[in-house]
Structure formats: C-alpha cells, structure tokens
Write a structure and sequence with these properties.
The protein is of the alpha/beta class. It has two domains: about 90 residues, Winged helix-like DNA-binding domain superfamily/Winged helix DNA-binding domain (Arc Repressor Mutant, subunit A, Orthogonal Bundle); about 240 residues, Vaccinia Virus protein VP39 (Rossmann fold, 3-Layer(aba) Sandwich). About 50% of the residues lie in helices and about 15% in strands. The chain is globular, with a radius of gyration of 23 Å. It holds the Pfam family Methyltransf_31.
Length: about 350
C-alpha cells in the first residue's frame, strides 16, 4: 500500500482543527450555560470588566473564556479599546433569543465527555452506561426538543396527520411514551383542555420535572408515571388511546420492538401514532453526507445505544435509520406509515402511523 505524504499532511492539519473545534465546543457550551452570549448580545461592545459587572460572572473567567471565543472566531475583539463584540450574525445562532440556538447542541459534548471512562470500559468489556450517569441529559434534551419539536408541534407536526388537531380540540385520550420531562405533553395539555394526556418514562427525575411544570401551570388534564416499558407489548392497555406519541424515544428503549407492539396494542383502531425520530439511514455509507452524522453517531454511541445495553437491551442506537424503523413498525403490526420532513429541522423524521392502511 503506497503512502501519500500530502494526504498525511492534510489529515494532520485536519486533526489540529478537530482539537481546536472540540475545545471551542466546550467553551460554546459554557458560554450558553452561563448566559455569557446573552450578555454579550446586550452589552457589545464591552470590556471583560463591564461584562462581569453587569452579568455577575467572575471577570477572570470571563476574560479567559473570551480568549477561546476570540481565537475561535466566535467573538470579535478590539485591541485598542479592549472591548469584545458578539456580531449580530453570530448572536442569531448563539443566544436564547435565537430561533435556532446552536449553543444548545454544544452542551452534548461536555455531557458525553463526562462518561468517557465508562464508555472506554464498555469498549473493552461490553455492557452499557445507565441513565443515572447522565444527570443533565434530560435538561439538555428538553432544550434541544424545545427548538426542533415544541416550536413546531401545534402548527406543523400535528397537522401532518389530517384531522388530528380537530380531534384533539373535541377531546381525545393521548399517551406519550418516553415522555422525558414532559414539555411536549404539557404543551399539548395546555393547548387542548378537552383532551386527557398520560406520560410514561423510565426516569423518575424527568417525570418529577414534568409533574412539577404541570402543577405550576395548573394543568389538570395531564398525568405522569414512572414506568419500565420492556413488557409493554403485553402490559399495555388494549385500544385505550386515540393518539400515541414518541419524541426521540424509541431508539434508546431496551426492547424497542416490544414498545412498538405495545403502542399498536394500546392504540384504538382509528387512532394515530405520531413518531419523531432521528433522520438517517440504517447503513452508514448512506449517512456520509448527513450534516450532523458524526455528532449523531457519537451521541448514539455514548448515550442512546449504551443506556439500552445497560438495561440488557438491544442497543438499537439513534442512527437505526428509516429502513429499520419501517421494518420494526411493520413487525409491530402497523400497516400505514408515511415519513415527513420539516424545512427547519435537519435532525428529525416525522412518522404518521396508523393500524390499518387507508382505503
């Protein structure tokens, strides 16, 4: 096998860039969590002392963090005045006022880095890393879905199933499987007071957040429960729900096919199953040009797949893809499946699923 020196040098340059960009991801996450970007957006141009005074942050940390953000091309710096500026074009992608805040996704990098030792051990011995090792994962997922799902749920996602918003307005029984911290379910409950909503999730921490938010908002038509869905195919209440939803939840279940069969069992004959899951294909070579492919495979390896394996599960992974998802839905008994994309969302596919094929 011949050795290409130019290829080696180019790859060396690329790996240096990987190190810089990886470090920058950490600092973008810190900038989001501390509110530094929001303060910069408000105060620019400003010195590190002015930013620290207004924000209440420590000036020494602000200055050093800004060093990384300046050298990373995120923040501008005027050496004559000592003032930092967050360009408006960058603020539109990094602040809480932004419709698409990319800094939210940067949080996955340090979050996953915290379990690197566990993942290394899994590479060597197999097994998985349990949910308990990810104390902030549900909070980050809530921010993530807040931009991709919640912002579009009422006006764009529900109408993918013709007549569904009207049925919810009149009154339906709805189940959200793998509800997480319940933001989607609470939004639905607030929007459709004539319908009744139930959420199931394995995480007691997430369920408690959903319950607390429902109480604070005075929502009396929504309930949450901690539940292991590994036997949902035999334990699900038969033909009980008009609508079942899963938001980014099926692929990290211990037994995803059992969950899908349980959804089929608990859905009424004329009901709708709405599944949001990661956009992708089941074979890696079809994902080479995926704009988020590397990030999604990494999240899958270091969270979605491993938490399933930690339960003795299948370890399906986030990148199970449309093809395998379609096969599983067919095996679960569903006859009608249509897959949709939303213009603003490069990350997800939206499946509208019914028990029987349309006549």
């Amino acid at each position: 096998m011949s050795y290409d020196t130019q290829k080696a040098e180019a790859f060396g340059d690329r790996m240096v860039d990987v190190l810089n960009q990886g470090a920058l991801s950490l600092m973008v996450s810190v900038g989001h969590r501390t509110g530094l970007f929001d303060w910069l957006d408000t105060l620019s141009p400003a010195t590190s002392t002015e930013i620290a005074r207004e924000s209440g942050l420590d000036e020494r940390y602000v200055r050093e963090g800004l060093g990384a953000l300046v050298t990373g091309g995120v923040v501008d710096y005027d050496s004559e005045t000592g003032r930092y500026t967050l360009p408006p074009e960058h603020a539109d992608l990094l602040t809480r006022r932004a419709a698409e805040n990319v800094a939210v996704f940067a949080q996955y990098i340090p979050l996953l880095g915290a379990v690197e030792d566990d993942i290394v051990a899994c590479f060597q011995r197999g097994g998985g890393v349990p949910y308990a090792r990810y104390p902030r994962f549900h909070a980050v997922m809530a921010e993530d879905s807040g931009q991709t799902v919640l912002s579009s749920l009422i006006d764009h996602i529900l109408p993918l199933a013709p007549g569904l918003p009207e049925r919810l307005a009149v009154g339906s029984r709805v189940l959200d499987v793998g509800c997480g911290s319940g933001r989607a379910l609470n939004l639905l409950a607030a929007t459709y007071p004539n319908s009744r909503f139930q959420g199931f999730d394995l995480s007691g921490e997430a369920v408690a957040i959903g319950q607390r938010e429902a109480q604070e908002r005075g929502l009396e038509n929504v309930r949450f429960a901690v539940r292991d869905l590994s036997q949902f195919d035999v334990e699900a209440e038969p033909e009980a729900f008009d609508l079942v939803t899963t938001f980014d939840a099926v692929h990290d279940q211990a037994r995803p096919l059992s969950v899908l069969r349980g959804i089929h069992r608990t859905l009424k004959r004329d009901g709708v199953y709405l599944m949001q899951d990661i956009h992708g294909h089941s074979e890696v070579h079809h994902n080479r040009d995926h704009p988020l492919g590397t990030l999604l495979y990494t999240i899958s390896c270091m969270h979605c797949m491993t938490v399933s394996l930690a339960q003795g599960g299948e370890g399906l992974g986030a990148m199970w893809g449309r093809e395998q998802a379609s096969r599983y839905l067919e095996e679960a008994g569903f006859q009608s499946v249509s897959i949709h994309r939303l213009d603003h969302d490069i990350q997800n596919d939206y499946y509208v699923i019914r028990k029987e094929a349309a006549h």
